[in-house]
Design a protein that fits this description.
Length: 263
């Protein structure tokens, strides 16, 4: 595995993030939610959070956890911007990445508001193929995943762990028929039933890219998502549970990181 390129000049700002090693306080741990408002929520749970960069819709905060600096940078939606964020943070010296996000459950027994720990991802994203062929598995870091599962179980909500389908598309790629065109390609018709039959728990859009990138670069990655919809019941996102679920996911994520950082 080649040695990672780390920026030597601590004042040099990355092109997309406008973040430097100086601004990031040389943090080696980053939490990467999709939404900027979730980044602000997570950052507020750290000690002494400060927003240190904001560019092209990508906000970066830095605070401390167990006395160590932790970054929070939102990725936006999907693999391409996740790739940019992970690449630029890795060049700044980040070695551990935790995605805290939202997802849609596809199994009947997963209630809305549950937390889902992704152990591995079905690579339906596209971006990850630029790092490894599809036969290469997208697998989370074991220590971080176990810490996430244990921490989530202490948060008073149902917890599930297993395989996630990580899609490049929110609408037809996840077999949604309520798109503007209303058309789902034949290749995706019946795909939700098939993934469910194969034991897949949920759909989201970033873990396939994240896990593949981090495995091929020798970095650690984990993913914890709040289920804000259950596709077996309705296509609708249950908005009144989003904030509660995000808060539970944030609590579990920080507990897990404290465990891993303390080793």
């Amino acid at each position: 595995m080649p040695e990672l390129l780390i920026v030597k000049d601590i004042s040099y700002k990355m092109y997309h993030l406008e973040l430097s090693r100086e601004l990031s306080r040389n943090a080696q741990v980053a939490i990467i939610p999709g939404a900027p408002e979730r980044a602000a929520l997570i950052a507020a749970s750290l000690a002494d959070p400060v927003r240190v960069a904001s560019h092209r819709g990508l906000d970066s905060w830095v605070g401390t956890l167990s006395g160590k600096p932790v970054l929070v940078t939102n990725t936006g939606m999907g693999g391409p911007t996740t790739e940019i964020v992970v690449q630029e943070l890795a060049q700044l010296g980040v070695t551990t990445f935790l995605r805290i996000g939202t997802c849609g459950a596809i199994r009947e027994d997963i209630p809305v508001g549950s937390l889902i720990v992704t152990e591995a991802a079905v690579r339906l994203d596209g971006t990850s193929e630029h790092y490894a062929p599809l036969r290469y598995p997208a697998v989370a870091d074991l220590d971080l995943t176990l810490a996430l599962r244990n921490a989530a179980q202490s948060c008073g909500v149902p917890v599930f762990s297993g395989i996630t389908a990580s899609s490049a598309s929110f609408y037809p790629g996840q077999e949604r028929y309520d798109s503007a065109g209303g058309y789902v390609r034949e290749a995706f018709r019946g795909s939700v039933d098939e993934w469910r039959a194969l034991g897949v728990l949920n759909f989201e859009m970033e873990s396939g890219t994240l896990f593949t990138m981090c495995r091929t670069m020798g970095l650690k990655a984990g993913c914890l998502c709040a289920a804000v919809a259950n596709r077996t019941q309705s296509e609708a996102v249950v908005r009144d549970v989003i904030r509660r679920s995000e808060e539970a996911a944030t609590k579990a994520g920080l507990l897990a990181l404290e465990k891993v950082m303390g080793k």
